[in-house]
Write a structure and sequence with these properties.
The complex is a heterodimer.
Chain A: H1 15-22, H2 28-31, E1 35-39, H3 43-55, E2 58-62, E3 80-81, H4 93-103, H5 110-130, E4 155-156, H6 162-180, E5 183-186, E6 189-197, E7 200-208, E8 214-218, E9 221-224, H7 245-252, E10 257-258, E11 263-269, E12 292-296, E13 313-314, H8 316-320, H9 330-342, E14 354-357, H10 359-365, H11 367-385, E15 394-403, E16 406-407, E17 420-422, H12 440-462, H13 473-492, H14 498-512, H15 519-539, H16 551-575, H17 599-602, E18 604-609, E19 618-623
Parallel strand pairs in A: 1-2, 1-9, 2-5, 9-17
Antiparallel strand pairs in A: 3-4, 6-7, 7-8, 10-16, 10-18, 11-15, 12-13, 12-14, 14-15, 18-19
Helix pairs in contact in A: 3-6, 3-12, 4-5, 5-12, 10-11, 14-15, 14-16, 15-16
Chain B: E1 3-9, E2 18-24, H1 33-46, E3 69-70, E4 73-74, E5 96-100, E6 109-111, E7 114-115, H2 118-127, H3 147-157, H4 164-168, H5 175-187, H6 195-208, H7 219-223, H8 231-246
Helix pairs in contact in B: 2-6, 3-5, 5-6, 5-8, 6-8
The chains are: A alpha+beta, B alpha+beta.
Chain lengths: ~625, ~260
Amino acid sequence: MKLDARIPSGPLAEKWQGLLNEIKLVSPANKRKHTVIVVGTGLAGGAAAASLGELGYKVKAFCYQDSARRAHSISAQGGINAAKNYQNDGDSVYRLFYDTIKGGDYRAREANVYRLAEVSNEIIDQCVAQGVPFAREYGGYLANRSFGGAQVSRTFYARGQTGQQLLLGAVSALNAQVAAGTVDLNIRTEMLDLVVVDGHARGIITRDMVTGEVECHVADAVLLCTGGYSNVYFLSTNAKGCNVTAIWRAYKKGAGFAGPCFTQIHPTCIPQAGDYQSKLTLMSESLRNDGRVWVPKAEGETRAPSDIPEAERDYYLERIYPSFGNLVPRDVASRNAKNVCDEGRGVGSSKRGVYLDFADAIERLGEDVIRARYGNLFDMYQMITDEDPYKVPMRIYPAPHYTMGGLWVDYYLMSTIPGLFVLGEANFSDHGANRLGASALMQGLADGYFVIPNTLGEYLARVKLDEVSPEQKEFTEARNEIQDRTKKLLAINGTRTVDSIHRELGMLMLDECGMSRNEKGLTEAISKIRSLREQFWTDIRVPGSDGEFNQELEKAGRVADLFELAELMCMDAIQRNESCGGHFREEYRTEEGEALRDDENFTNVTVWEYTGADSAPVAHTEDLNFEFVELTQRSYK
Amino acid sequence: MKLTLHIWRQKNTEDRGRFATFELEDVSTHMSFLEMLDVLNHELIEKGDEPVAFEHDCREGICGACGFVINGVPHGHMKGNTVCQLHMRHFSDGDEITLEPWRAKAFPITKDLVVDRTSFDRILQAGGYVSVRTGSAPDANAIPVTTDTLEHAMDFAECIGCGACVASCPNGAAMLFVGAKISHLALLPQGQPEKARRALKMVEAMEREAFGACTNFTSCEATCPKEISISGIARMNKDFRRAVLAGAAAPHGKQR
């Protein structure tokens, strides 16, 4: 597997503009001759499909939801970063770049991250012009808030529903193109395979989720914008439908999978309440601006939080990390929450929780100010827990939230399969081993609005593609395989529901490949995953038939792929003998218990190549050359 | 607690559909309503029956996927709530609960509690946007917007497109939905150039679908999970009327 990142030469700040100056273009008359498939309509996919449609490409967009507007980007709460420096607090493109690289624990590619910071300002401009109602100050100018891992205030937000407003902006642009006839939008349609012809991505196989019809779609390029795979843990903050299938099938067709073990367990979520729990709800990280995290000093404390005097509380983040305090990056905050709960100082009935207390902020600023900032989050918390966070501290606990790993892409966002591009959370490119808050929305929109419209043209202008037909064998074989697999799932007719076995997989992954990992646990996890997978293929029951709306069948197909992914995640975690970002290996830590990187051996990205169902995948590496940033031990103390 | 559920079962759009009754025991008060249905489905599958189809995705009240009628009220009896955020602590032991899909001509039933809401998207595609080519925007701070205006626009922008407004309306009208999008954009300076055209196009698209007209029942506002104000409907009517009187459609034909 050849891994050429194709990073443009020249100084960091001139790479992207230099490439734009010289990149090959597709003429307006030729653009309409190219069909481009875009899978997923979240921020990355919605923005890409809209922008490519505006340019005149023939776009076919797909989403599994009943409307493009429901893609999971809609759930993002906190905000989107940009280096506008509207606050005059010393922000700059370089500083945003630097914070993102450092936050990712130096496991991302410099050039990509710099470009991300560079286009961040244009994103805000674009969104405001679309009518995204970002919060403003009394003078009418845009407001900002602070987020973890940064010492400037650069996050733009729309109440606690920034993702919703950004997505509605992107989807409105997409809708305009649907009306203009440049985008053919296919809802309730799930991609089940990628078709590669003569080494180039030339189409996809889909299933119509209402009729069950399996269809072939031909294109000159395929863009996967299908999000992350946190649902491998069953309980996560992701929407129930989020899945790995699109990128997993691409991996099995030859696309390298980079850093699958890099997952983010978000520190501020509502703790699990019972065995029936179906998902976890995020409480935006922005709450850490005003909330103070604490647990009782004593183990096994049973008093109500209000009865625990100040002197018997441990504000552990402020104690351990005095300079960043409650605003340490997510991986650090999560790991510390796990540690204090492991020590027996957790709160709530499950004892897997810590307090996030607003009493000081309410006293300092008044309840009205807090309500204006976080009202909807407080309401949501009360709705779910039946507790009033204005009076009683919130209880929070980490939950799987985001996956930094994903398909490997070069600087042009192209995977190891020519013609297959991967955008947003589905690729690995910008967040290294840990993503900072408010960076996911930035990356999705950067990739979709500003990167791919330029880099896709380079590929299409350069490559010579033959005509292909959906009747040729690459397509028919893939379609037959999909139909056979569906029949197989329906024929098992065992005793267990898909959810019950998925839940078991999730618990195993959270224990062994979650916030803290070790070689022994990971090795055992692999054999447990295999036996669970065996059970899945022999004992699940999928009711109904193929030719109808069948939610259990959809689930079964997705979980089957998650099983295969889970094994690769563990293999990846075993081989990475260091601790970095969200990947914390217990064997590799400093004397103070902090993550210990091994820059000599692991300043690289591990990229896995699929070699067949019966042989082990092969690990390749892309070395990360830090030309502009000096690697330091990440310290937030 | 123990519950008796009367649930609408319908195999597909052509099927006539009917109610089926299920008994469910040991329901925890901490469960969400959808988790209660997960438990029911788990039992049904284990017994070899077909699970109940219902739409859901984020389960955080923001994606707008979920929604059905609970005891006659879309999203249930709690105010400002989607079904996914409704918890079983608001029900009592021994309750009988009736679940039906959105009932509206413009939302054909796909299966059980799942409906087809593509009519909403066709309205948005007709004009629910600001036409701004990627890359052509001025600096985000170029046009100040007062906080009052901004917050007012945001109140309408919060619409999640779930369809509860249509389901609650005796006329099956979509005007709260359409009025929300028109108001969101019409209140902001960025939405001004296309204001008249947008109102015309969206109202016409709405009338092409099988939605009814507004006769001021205001049940939409009462059931909207985002508590969107019916003043959006007034603004829609005003913008539409002005657009017609000003002949805003002129360059695109003589629709009116």
